From TrEMBL:
Gene Ontology molecular function: hydrolase activity
Originating species: Micromonospora auratinigra
Alphabetized UniProt keyword annotations: Hydrolase, Signal
Record has Signal as a keyword: yes
Signal sequence extent: 1-26
Name recorded for this polypeptide: Sortase family protein
PROSITE patterns the record matches: PROKAR_LIPOPROTEIN
Record-linked Pfam families: Sortase
Claim: ATP-binding is one of the keywords in the record: no
InterPro entries: Sortase (IPR005754), Sortase_dom-sf (IPR023365), Sortase_F (IPR042001)
Amino acid sequence: MTVRHRGALAAMAAGAAALTVATLVACGSGPAEDVGADEAAALASATPTPTATATGSGDPAVPVNAGTLPAGGKTIPPVKLRIPAIGVTASVNPVGVNQRTDEFEVPPSVDQVGWYRYGPGLEAESGSVVIAGHVDSADQGKGAFFRLRELDRGDTLTTTGEDGRERKFTVVAREEYAKTKIPLDRYFARDGKPRLTLITCGGPFDPKTRHYRDNIVVTAVPA
């Protein structure tokens, strides 16, 4: 499967954006100021990752890392994510891009999160392992990443791989970007130091477009 044209990070990072209503806007409107931005940038390689072509939607394009999983069966998907500081214990499902809608297929249940399966797995010695989740839903309420904006440097989290092994990470950065400004090449890269990238929606909610304006991005490194 190939990552197609529209930069649907919004749908991946919080598929609930299309489901939310104005009554839930407060949950994503006031994150703390950015921390660790320089450290997050330093983890990434200077080599840009090829990106899909953006359409007139105004959203950035999601980097095209690969059309298939690496050969040899060595990719280890995350299957569970625990973040004690914000009370998260969530199943992790592999997700890609819906070829009909050009949007990421975030798990429909807001208590679950999605791993970008065309990027690195947990065994990777370089690159960004991307996990995205809902912030909320009009039908289902608070999502798994409802409190993601509360994470701070030094907070710890644990991913469990399909191999049953737990891997611990430490948060080094929390940033907020307008969705049209987020540097996707950095956060979806296969190169640079190994890191875990968590993404959801944030900022004010626009009831006309039924989307949040921003993305919250948390970067964590192996503990």
